[in-house]
Amino acid sequence: MTDPLHERDLARPALDLVAKAAGPYLEALPDLPVRDAAADVLLDRLGGPLPERGCGTLAGIEELIEVGTRAATHSSGPRFFHFVVGGSTPAAQAADWVTSLLDQAAGLWAASALATEAETIVLGWLKDLFALPDSYGAVLTPSATFANLTALACARHWWAERHGVDVTVDGLAGLPRMPVLAGGYVHPSNRKALQILGLGRDTLTVCARDDAGRVDIDAMERALIEIDGPAVIIASAGEVNTGDFDPIDALADLAERYGAWLHVDGAFGLFAGVSPRLAHLVSGVERANSVAADGHKWLNVPYESGFVFVRDPTILGRAFGAWNAPYLPGAGDTHLNYGALGPESSRRARALPIWATLRAYGRSGYRAMVERHNDLALRLGAIAEADPLLELLAPVRLCVVCFRYRPEGMADAEVDELNRRLGEQLQEDGRVYPGTTVYRGRTALRPALVNWRTTERDVDLLVDVVREIGARVADDIRAGR
Ligand SMILES: Cc1ncc(COP(=O)(O)O)c(C=O)c1O
């Protein structure tokens, strides 16, 4: 039998093992392939039946380090451009270890005053960073999906109140369908949130004026006139294919004119507000009723980290609160309990990595990083535009570059097939990891540049590898292979 109590003296040696492995791993990270498919065989070592008798603390940790450092996708390195995945700044990563060390239960003040106070502090700093009014209510969430869910739960509460119903207490029965409108940029996580909230994933009315998804303001206005009652508008600050933005000010005008709730999904795009030269992209966000964003993307803190801000600071408590068990703090509790302000109860002290990274690098450090990524994206866009073998599919707005490999004279269907295979082969190759999408019916690459480690060297390697593998795939297609 291996009882953890008998291994209590091994806590420190176990952490020493991790610390010893961390140095070489982090030093190698910038040059490691993003993914080494050959290491997948190691994953078998994680399996087998539930051990009847454990292998002991040190053996278990040694095994995990060995498999983990080799078989992990090195997505926290500088050349994982797929999806929108950041890394962890040195301060955030170290603070995440501190978070594990302290193992705080961050839902209740009575369980952790440290985590609660730290959350209040970082939420204040984040409002300041994004130029949101200090009066807004806020809570940390595990992700932007959860931030959208939290915001839309508040919107649902507000909407039901206008129909004379406390949806938190009585549910949706008897209410009409909640009208939700958005442009075509809307991220699927908003649909997921609507689905979880019992509002229906496909009830969203999409007002788009083209196949890129740009919002049709006139169509949305016509829809709002027809609805003639409270509605919810979702604005996208940062679309995943191109990094483009909905015009938030124009949507805020509509929301004000028709008494609608405006939610802004700024999972990564909210960070445009950190740079004076990019802040125009999020102009109007301070007029929103709710704003969602991610920490584990452009803030470069470890997973799982997101945050939501709401204009009415009481609505989080009304949409989520009302503990009703005698062992939990009741209505008379004067302390803030973040577990009562969102969908989670027990939660990790995810404020600590946010605190550390903002303390370490400050507003100016984040401004420098966001502007560096924007410069790199513009550089990549310019290269794609200038190269006759590449085609830029949309203007570069922020940190996403949508382009494809396109040899002259090749038919459209073949170009799509080429880029599909190119995406697959880039992934197998592993030196760079841009990922593919379908944008306006065309298969394309859409690298997102949000990792603090990424430099010109990484972007140039991306271009070189795309040219190299693109040429090979083009030859294959021409040869009918
Ligand atoms: C605009 C937008 N909203 C929401 C999300 C969901 O974020 P998460 O995966 O952190 O839940 C993403 C993820 O890419 C996104 O880009």
How would you characterize this protein structure?
The protein has 481 residues and is α/β, with parallel strands linked by helices. It contains 13 helices and 11 strands. The protein has a 7-stranded mixed beta sheet, sandwiched between helices. A two-stranded antiparallel sheet has the order 8-9. It is globular. The mean pLDDT is 97. Bound molecules: pyridoxal-5'-phosphate. Residues 83-84, 143-145, 187, 189, 238, 240, 265, 267-268, 294, 306 line the site of pyridoxal-5'-phosphate. Pyridoxal-5'-phosphate (PLP) binds next to helix 5.
Outline the secondary-structure elements.
Elements: H1 11-28, H2 57-71, H3 90-102, H4 113-129, E1 137-141, H5 144-162, H6 167-170, E2 180-182, H7 188-196, E3 205-206, H8 217-227, E4 232-236, H9 248-258, E5 261-265, E6 290-294, E7 306-310, H10 315-320, H11 351-386, E8 390-392, E9 403-405, H12 412-429, E10 436-439, E11 442-445, H13 456-478
Parallel strand pairs: 2-3, 2-4, 4-5, 5-6
Antiparallel strand pairs: 1-7, 6-7, 8-9, 10-11
Helix pairs in contact: 1-2, 3-11, 4-11, 5-7, 8-9, 11-13, 12-13
The structure holds pyridoxal-5'-phosphate.
The site of pyridoxal-5'-phosphate has 14 residues, from helix 5.
